[in-house]
Design brief:
Blueprint (H helix, E strand, L loop, with lengths): L2 E6 L4 H13 L3 E7 L19 E5 L5 H10 L4 E4 L6 H6 L2 H22 L7 E7 L23 H20 L3 E6 L1 E3 L8 H10 L4 E4 L5 E6 H14 L5 E4 L4 E3 H15 L11 E4 L14 H7 L7 H14 L1 H7 L3 H10 L3
Parallel strand pairs: 1-2, 1-4, 2-3, 4-5, 5-6, 6-10, 7-9, 8-12
Antiparallel strand pairs: 9-11
The chain binds nicotinamide-adenine-dinucleotide and 2'deoxy-thymidine-5'-diphospho-alpha-D-glucose.
The site of 2'deoxy-thymidine-5'-diphospho-alpha-D-glucose has 19 residues, from helix 6 and strand 8.
Length: about 350
């Protein structure tokens, strides 16, 4: 079926994997990648699909209401997968405004533009908002996040994502907009910007630099390989029920310090270093303000209703991830120069 699908944030980490999957799997779809190319957006992530006849890139900022409205005036759109966001918790603590503007106002700009174009004729239309498990807050040692868990966001990032989730649902209830939302746990894999724990640690291990662990390293995250998330997004976009929310997670909880020790042993082996060399770089630093203790997703709804399950075991996913970063050192060098270096120095100077 011919369809025009707009994917926002397609030059980022998860977005680039979603673009690749859709461009290759759906040659009949016109895929438009709309991205502002902030520090986190990198078209190098998409060189393998950039010349595909069903792919088009538009550089545009979702905060720019006029530009978004002009695009929707000119271009009929059947489906929207909305991934564009400011995504890093530490940056949201340092500078919250960009998170309010992009994650909240930018989302509302897209909702309004879709509503204006579709004018209540929602046949074959879909607005899919990609969100995070962080909207549910922080767990103690027990329990999981379910789709019905009350929202309790605790950082400017998660509050901005929670706000956008509420607005997306409000547009469904108020205007009938055909929406679907997913809330996913921590992703890892190729092309992740090295401000996030796993790529940052790999980069520092390779370069024999300190690996900063916040607090005691006892915070727990539930890790999912990015291509498994992209597969879930494909499934929900095509088969998810309008108005519904689906949690996506890896059922794969790790304390930060245990994860980093595992990563250190993989790096030592792959770089032919003496065992313990990389672990010697672990450095405990001042904790993140308001650091959520534990996230854990119950993903039974998407498994039972849509048949999705993670395909990769963590050990295998981490090996693939490390291999990718080691064989793409030029990618890493380019994204760790310039703006990122300034950010890195300011973030870790006082820790
Ligand atoms: P990312 O930071 O790697 O990429 C974000 C992309 O959005 C970049 O390409 C950037 O240029 C673009 N962007 C940012 N502001 C924009 C704006 N104003 N206008 C247009 N484009 C803009 O993020 P990611 O990790 O790939 O996350 C993608 C989405 O998935 C986000 O909505 C995030 O909240 C959500 N999510 C991420 C994770 C995770 O572990 N990374 C987990 C669950 C949900
Ligand atoms: O849970 C989903 C979320 O996962 C997404 O919504 C976010 O966009 C994504 O950034 C991620 O958020 P986290 O804050 O969990 O990811 P991050 O990689 O920043 O941190 C993971 C854990 O590691 C967290 O407990 C903080 C800790 N950490 C992080 C960094 C960058 C460190 O100990 N040291 C570090 O240098």
């Amino acid at each position: 079926m011919k369809r025009t699908v707009l994917i926002t944030g397609g030059a980022g980490f998860i977005g680039s994997h979603v673009i690749r999957l859709f461009v290759n799997k759906y040659p009949d779809y016109q895929i438009i990648n709309l991205d502002a190319l902030t520090y986190a957006g990198n078209l190098e992530n998409l060189t393998d699909v950039e010349k595909a006849p069903n792919y088009r890139f538009i550089r545009m900022d979702i905060r720019n209401k006029e530009a978004i409205n002009d695009l929707f005036d000119q271009q009929p759109i059947d489906g929207i997968l909305h991934l564009a966001a400011e995504s890093h918790v530490d940056r949201s603590i340092a500078e919250p405004m960009a998170f309010i503007e992009t994650n909240i106002i930018g989302t509302v700009n897209l909702l309004n533009a879709a509503r204006n174009q579709w004018k209540g004729n929602y046949e074959g239309k879909r607005f899919y908002h990609i969100s995070t498990d962080e909207v549910y807050g922080s767990l103690g040692e027990e329990g999981h996040f379910y789709e019905i868990t009350s929202y309790d966001p605790r950082s400017p990032y998660s509050a901005s994502k929670a706000s956008s989730d509420h607005l997306v649902r409000a547009y469904h209830h108020t205007y009938g907009l055909p929406i679907v939302i997913t809330n996913c746990s921590n992703n890892y894999g190729p092309n992740q910007f090295p401000e996030k724990l796993i790529p940052l640690s790999i980069h520092n291990m390779v370069n024999m630099k300190p690996i900063p662990i916040y607090g005691k390293g006892e915070n727990i995250r539930d890790w999912l390989y990015v291509e498994d998330h992209a597969r879930a997004i494909d499934l929900v976009f095509h088969k998810g029920m309008i108005g519904e929310t689906y949690n996506i997670g890896g059922h794969n909880e790790w304390k930060n310090i245990d994860l980093i020790r595992l990563l250190c042993s993989i790096l030592d082996r792959k770089l032919n270093r003496d065992s313990g060399t990389s672990a010697g770089l672990i450095t405990y630093v001042t904790d993140r303000a308001g650091h959520d203790l534990r996230y854990a997703i119950d993903a039974s709804k998407i498994r039972q209703e849509l048949g999705w399950e993670p395909s990769l075991q963590f050990a295998e996913g981490l090996e693939k991830t490390v291999d990718w970063y080691l064989s793409n050192s030029e990618w890493m060098e380019r994204v760790t120069s310039g703006e990122y270096q300034t950010y890195y120095e300011s973030m870790y100077r006082n820790r």
